[in-house]
Amino acid sequence: MNVTGGQTHPHHVEVEVRAEPRQLPWLRDRLERWLRHTTCPADGVERALLALNEAITNSMVHAYRDGPAGPLRVSGQHNGDEVVLTVADEGSWKPARPGEGLGGRGVLMMQECVDRVYLDHTSGGTLVILELDVAHNGELSGRNKGEHRIAVRSSVDDVVVRLTGNVPAGSAPLLRRQLLGVSCGGVVPLTLDLSALGPATEGASQAISGVADAAAGVGGKVVLVVPPESLAAAQLTTFPDHELVDVVESL
Predict the structure, then answer these.
(1) Could you read off the pLDDT of 125-145 as tens digits, one per residue?
(2) Is 38 exposed, middle or buried (0-12, 13-18, 19+ CB in 10 A)?
(3) Spatial CB neighbours of 121, under 8 Å, sequence gap ≥ 6
(4) How many CB atoms lie within 10 A of CB 111?
(5) Would you say 75 and 14 are in contact if contact means Cβ atoms under 8 Å apart?
(6) What pTM value is reported for the model?
């Protein structure tokens, strides 16, 4: 897997890999395990992972586009009420313009997910610093009004998520971040099992639409599993019914 220098401590994590897209699912999993051992609330973890995904993906796609993949270093520091995450490469990455596809919305998405974003471009590479105020996010986020749950089964090639419970409109932002997080911002194909979805579906519809748009931006699709006998089947008209989503009856 070409992993070097990996260190994990309660307040610090540091990993170095080759800047290759196939490393992304493993790297995200490693960082998620560390974040969940900090005081960062669940919703803050999802947002931190989404911001990290954007920074890491941009480096993987753009930093070494004119040659072989080079090193990519990711680290995290848990300093009391703050989590600081850094992504560094030695390439010539430049942020893509909106509409250019993968990475075009990266900086904006990072800014929406964490409290502060710093970018440092030099001839020796690019450094991205992401800062998340843990106490602040604990007060404002992590609320799951719909009491939905997700169960994730992932691999290098795809991720399957089983959604359980109700997802009213107020839970849409949380579910959207969760789904974008586990699918690495739409890069990894997502199959969403709705067989156990409850009767409250408005938030699920909104979240799925947002994730489908993100997946389409990188040439992907979202697959919805909707068995005929499920509550979701009766509510199917509330879900995105367009070319970005495929609906099947079983896995």
Answers:
(1) 999 999 998 875 444 344 455
(2) buried
(3) 93, 94
(4) 14
(5) yes
(6) 0.59
Per-residue b/e over 65-99, b at no fewer than 16 CB within 10 Å? eeeebebbbbbbbbeeebbbbbbbbbbbbebbeee
SS3 content of the chain, % helix, strand, coil (to 5): 35, 30, 35
Q: What CA–CA distance (Å, rounded) separates 18 from 2?
A: 6
Question: Could you tell me if residue 168 is left (phi over 0), alpha (psi between -120 and 50 degrees) or otherwise beta?
Answer: beta
Q: Could you give all domains of the chain from N- to C-terminal order, each with its CATH number?
A: 3-138 (3.30.565.10), 143-248 (3.30.750.24)
Per-residue pLDDT of 35-75, as tens digits, reads 988 888 888 888 899 899 889 988 888 888 888 989 999 99
- Which residue from 14, 204, 20, 48 is spatially nearest to 116, judged by alpha carbons? 48
